[in-house]
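User: Could you write out the 3D structure of this protein bound to cytidine-5'-monophosphate? I've included everything you need below.
Assistant: Certainly. Input first, then the structure.
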Amino acid sequence: PALPALQGKTLLITAGPTREAIDPVRFLSNHSSGKMGFALAEAAAKAGAKVQLVTGPVNLLTPAGVERIDVQSAQQMHTAVMQRASTADIFIGCAAVADYRVAEVAGQKMKKTSSNDELTLTLVKNPDIIADVAALTYQRPFTVGFAAETENLASYAKDKLQRKKLDLICANDVSSKEQGFHSEHNAITAYWQGGELALERQAKTALAAAILQLIAQRIQQQQPL
Ligand code: C5P
């Protein structure tokens, strides 16, 4: 295989958006397509890794050899990830997890009334999945995050690297239509403690292989033979 370092390793990957219910027929979500996470899962499986892919709702086929766990909400994704995180060698948080959910989900479809010209939804913070994985003190996987930003890419990404205690973060400029959300292409700059690497715009499948190669290199640097 192209990536011998990943052979036999267990990778846990999140992908796609989450859906936060408002009522039985409505939800809050975002534009994540899941393509980057699925491309990483496919490339890792091809490299001989055991891959578990926890995904929000997306329109993508499960890559060959990948175990797929479908979830809807951030809370469900959190539960699915925490059940598996300590048996993974590598965790990659590629999902665009909703930062907030609706505080009280209505049991029935909310109705428009003539007196309701304004409606207020109260939101509460969701758990930070990747921060909880990175905070594991026992059997903590090598933890890789993504940062999709529309401005201040480098500084926001480096801040997330520190704050969430990640081993590596892939910063992704989503302000351009030429890459990022829904696109087949992406460009990222990866940051770690004391280093960075720009990976130029390319197909998400090729970029996935390059990211996995960097992860394998970083793991070897952290734990020299
Ligand atoms: O949303 P944010 O830009 O902070 O996301 C950065 C990283 O954190 C991503 O890897 C994302 O998957 C992860 N994340 C998470 N749980 C959240 C929010 C973000 O795992 N609630």
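The CA atoms of residues 149 and 173 lie 5 Å apart.
User: Perfect, thank you.
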